[in-house]
Design brief:
heterodimer, A: 94 residues, mainly alpha, B: 127 residues, 4 helices, 81% helix, elongated, transmembrane (chain B), transport (chain B)
């Protein structure tokens, strides 16, 4: 039973990743694209979870943690770049 | 009914709810009019969807395989903590880089506060 549920869930996740990709391509401003990329990363996390259920293995569970950390760091870096113009600032008084 | 059967049913229902929530948030991403409402859709409901899916996966591995995965708990906690922070940061960056709101919006309290702050600062500099 759980295999069929996994396939249905993977189809749903693929639909939402495709819609996010449409927003990445079309989005009128830069923050739109960053939000859509963040949502794609989150959907990818749950896709990895569903795939590890359908393959019935616990070997991919580190990938979930890694994808979460990576998508958070990229979103923070992009938003800092959009707001300040640099990602890592220099020291001021020198 | 055995324990693993119950666990399978709970996991299946949670995974279906979570992925449906992801699809709804994706439709919010294409249907809503401006950046701020889209970030509302893209961070809140997508976060809830991925939390439901990861909880379903955790329950599946717990009941069916007798395997309590600490990495999955860490992933759940991390996504729950960081996704709203990322949404806040990117909306703030969008506001400060001048992305306009939709024409249907009726009030902008942050703009009023920023103008008030600028006015008090300039009057201080005059003194």
């Amino acid at each position: 039973m759980l295999e069929i549920v996994g396939y249905i869930a993977l189809i749903f996740l693929s639909i939402s990743i495709c819609i996010g990709l449409f927003r990445v391509i079309k989005g009128p401003s830069m923050p739109d694209r960053v939000i859509a990329l963040d949502t794609i990363g989150i959907n990818l996390i749950s896709a990895v979870a569903v795939i590890s259920i359908t393959l019935d293995t616990g070997a991919f569970l580190e990938v979930i943690l890694l994808l979460g950390i990576l998508s958070f760091i990229t979103t923070v870096a992009f938003s800092k770049f959009l707001e300040r113009g640099v990602v890592i600032e220099r020291k001021r008084d020198r | 009914m055995s324990v693993s059967g119950t666990g399978e049913i709970i996991a299946a229902v949670l995974i279906l709810i979570g992925t449906l929530m992801s699809v709804i948030s994706a439709f919010g991403l294409i249907r809503l009019p401006d950046v701020y409402t889209r970030s509302h859709a893209g961070t809140k409901s997508a976060t809830l969807g991925v939390l439901c899916t990861l909880t379903g996966t955790f329950i599946f591995f717990w009941f069916v395989n007798d395997f309590i995965s600490v990495r999955l708990i860490l992933g759940i906690v991390f996504v729950f903590l960081t996704a709203p922070v990322a949404g806040h940061l990117i909306s703030r960056a969008a506001y400060h880089s001048g992305v306009p709101m939709t024409e249907d919006s009726v009030q902008d309290q942050l703009k009023e506060d920023m103008e008030k702050k600028k006015k008090t600062q300039s009057s201080k500099e005059d003194e």
